[in-house]
Amino acid sequence: MIAYNDLIKKLVDRNISEEERGILHEWVISDDKHQDIFTETLKACESETIETFNADDAYKRFMTSITKEKDSTFKLPAYYKYAAILVIALCIGYLILPNNGGETSTKIANTETNIKTNDIIIKLADGTKKSITINDDELKDSNNTIIASKNDNGLSFNNHSENKELAYNEILVPNGKTFKLELSDGTIVWLNAGTEFKFPQNFQAQSKNRTVHLKGEAYFDVTTNKNKPFIVDSKGVNIEVLGTQFNVSAYEDEANITTTLVEGAVNVFQDDSPEDKLQLSPNYQALFNRLNSEFAKTKVDTRIYTSWMENKLVINNLKFNDILKKLERKHDVIIINKAPILNNTIYSGEFEEESIETILETIALSTPFNFNINENTIIITE
């Protein structure tokens, strides 16, 4: 006999498999009593994080909404007394709805004329700009020298460059896309949407360390080299490692720079204070506040901060306006919020490749608002 309570607990803990989710879905929709059990169990699982809410209404409203044809404007009634997110609503969205996530490009264009506004762009050390969208297996510079190749859904600079002079390439990842990169030392870097990443074509040209520059978000799996530390310069904060796995979020339009350590050890310090290093151990995060130039160190669930690599959107006690920033990057849209009363509302939950319509509609179950979509522009109103 299948233990459905255990499956619901797995759903809440975000470790449920695709097969188990399908089994749970079929069970929930097969009987009204199962719906009651489902919502009650979710309430019990999330009792420490959810304020009082009507889980039955949330479930029924959501199940009804996904069976109707909708235009681009949604109007939802005010079911809830409190302005906090209902993890129940987001969990249901994660459980049931179809996928429509971001993209990862893997092809290379060797002509600057092919560049489009939504392409992933590489600026080579020789000044050449190229679009990574057309079916070429090799990346060449202006001298027709191979400097990188397509490898495992990304680009590999490993074993290609023999240039001993310090020369930097730069990858520009637009909103709506992600990209994987192998550097010349074998380090793997996953770049999130809306990210600029500058790196040496060949680390051998750097004598003391391996320094890269980040604006945006990236996950690093650094190749160990005890004689040459790997440093991520995130414009205000440096992260120094020998060999480890960690995530850095350093978008220029956000107040905080966060470094989340998955494996190994890192030192985090301000650009102008390298002697004042904050050391992290696995499952800890360093948060640097740009406004007051202070660090805070906390223990975290690293899955929350690396879920974007699996095309998931995990919301963990985020304000509404911060969620909108994530949605703009992930779905390559412009969101105009004409309901500022929502900006400081706190939400938590998870989506796995759902469309932006689904995400906004689900959030609106908790704090009702309307939204209208016109091509790539979304306007939110009360």
Shape annotation? globular
Number of helices: 8
Give average pLDDT, whole number.
76
Distance between the termini: 47 Å
> How much of the residues is beta strand, in percent?
25-35%
Kindly state the number of beta strands.
25
**Quaternary status:** single chain
- Any low-confidence stretches, pLDDT <50, length ≥5? 46-111
Kindly name the structural category.
alpha+beta
Most strands sheet? 19 strands, mixed
Rg: 23 Å
Helix content: 10-25%
Descriptive tags:
8 helices; 19-stranded mixed sheet; alpha+beta; 21% helix; 4-stranded mixed sheet; 33% strand; 382 residues
In a few lines, what is going on in this structure?
This protein is α+β, with helices and mostly antiparallel strands and 382 residues long. It has helices at 4-13, 18-29, 32-45, 55-65, 87-96, 302-306, 320-331, 356-363; strands at residues 73-74, 103-104, 121-123, 129-131, 138-140, 146-150, 154-156, 168-173, 177-182, 188-191, 195-200, 210-221, 230-233, 237-241, 245-250, 256-263, 266-270, 278-280, 284-289, 294-299, 312-319, 334-337, 346-352, 370-374, 377-381. The protein starts with a helix and ends with a strand.
